Amino acid sequence: MNENITSLPSLGPASAYLVSSEDLPIRGKLELEWIGEGENGIAVKLETEGNKALTEATKDVLGSVVPYSITGSLPLVRYLQDNDFDVQLVGYGKSSKYHADNEAADLKDFKQAIKILARVMARLETE
Questions:
Q1: CA distances (Å), 69 to each of 24, 37, 41, 90, 119, in order?
Q2: Fewest CB within 10 angstroms: 8, 33, 56, 87, which?
Q3: Residue-wise pLDDT tens digits, 16-35
Q4: Cβ neighbours of 97 (radius 10 Å)
């Protein structure tokens, strides 16, 4: 990357990692350095009663379940998992709007989510 430093995106000619001078040009240099420990990732446990209840409730309301995975860091969630909580992460809405400039939610999605979560609680209450 440093061999071709001027090919990196910049905010214009004044920030292109190269400064002209009367002597030799001064080139920028990119260095990556860990400044601390990284975060532990998480993955929900698919074999738990919570996941089974969530899957069945979602099928009941939406007609199908399409699990997927995204990356991110959720230290508190990992802490709960490490302390034997059955953590399940869900999102109801359009993933294309998630953290987008035009992030938005549809009330229909919220209504479906409430129905699903009510069914999850009812299922877990009887077990």
A1: 49, 23, 12, 10, 23
A2: 33
A3: 777 777 777 777 888 888 88
A4: 14
Those residues whose C-beta lies under 8 Å from the C-beta of residue 29, and which sit 6 or more positions away, are: 2, 5
Residues 6+ positions from 98 with CB-CB distance below 8 Å: 91
* DSSP calls for 17-41: SEE--SSSPEEP-------SPPPPP
Q: Could you give the CA distance from residue 110 to residue 69 in angstroms, rounded to a whole number?
A: 21
Convert the pLDDT of each residue in 33-92 to its tens digit: 888 887 777 888 899 999 999 999 999 999 999 888 877 778 888 889 999 999 998 888
Backbone phi and psi for residue 62, each to the nearest 5 degrees, phi listed first: -95, -15
